[in-house]
Write a structure and sequence with these properties.
Number of helices: 6
CATH topology: Rossmann fold
CATH class: Alpha Beta
Strand order of the largest sheet: 2-1-3-4
Order of helices and strands: EHEHHEHEHH
Number of strands: 4
Structural class: alpha/beta
Mean pLDDT: 97
Oligomer: single chain
CATH architecture: 3-Layer(aba) Sandwich
Length: 155
C-alpha cells in the first residue's frame, strides 16, 4: 500500500481539503486497497479541530467524506510510515526537511508534480480567503498525483 501524507500549517484548510479530495479520487478509482491518505499540521495551533467551515463546504459540495478528519501535528513516526510527505508551501517543506532526518527523499512540494508549476505554492486560504482558488489549485495537482501513484501500483 502506498501511503500519502498532505501537510500544511494548521491542518484545517489546505491539507484536509487535499486529503478529502484525494480520498474521493481514490474511492472513485477503486484504489482503497492500494493508496492510503492522511493529513497533518506543522504547528499545534489547531490540534483536535475539524476542517475550517469553508473547507467543509467545498468537501460537502464534491461529496468527499471528511467525517474523521481533524487537525493533528506531524510526528517523527509519520516520516517513517508515509511514502510521500507533501507540503503545500515552501515554509511547510522547510519545516518537513528540518524534521525528516533520514527521510528527506519522501518530502515534496505539492505543485512540483507538474514541471510547469514547479516551486509554486498553494496559498493559505485561512489568510487569503480564497478557498475556491485553493480547491482548483489542489484539483489540478491532485489529478497528476493520482496518475503518478496509479503508475506505481503493482498489480
Amino acid at each position: 500500500m502506498i501511503k500519502v501524507l498532505f501537510v500544511c500549517l494548521g491542518n484545517i484548510c489546505r491539507s484536509p481539503m487535499a486529503e478529502g479530495m484525494f480520498r474521493k479520487m481514490i474511492k472513485d478509482r477503486g484504489l482503497e486497497q492500494s493508496i492510503h491518505v492522511e493529513s497533518r499540521a506543522t504547528s499545534t495551533y489547531e490540534i483536535g479541530n475539524p476542517p475550517h467551515p469553508k473547507t467543509q463546504h467545498i468537501l460537502n459540495r464534491i461529496q468527499a467524506d471528511f467525517s474523521n478528519i481533524y487537525s493533528k501535528q506531524i510526528t517523527q513516526d509519520d516520516f517513517r510510515v508515509f511514502d510521500f510527505v507533501i507540503g503545500m508551501d515552501l515554509e511547510n517543506v522547510r519545516y518537513l526537511k528540518a524534521h525528516a532526518g533520514p527521510y528527506q527523499s519522501k518530502i515534496y512540494l505539492l505543485r512540483d508534480i507538474n514541471p510547469l508549476t514547479k516551486n509554486e505554492i498553494i496559498p493559505d486560504p485561512y489568510y487569503t480567503g480564497k478557498y475556491e482558488e485553493t480547491y482548483h489549485l489542489l484539483k489540478e495537482s491532485l489529478e497528476l498525483w493520482i496518475k503518478f501513484l496509479e503508475a506505481q501500483i503493482v498489480l
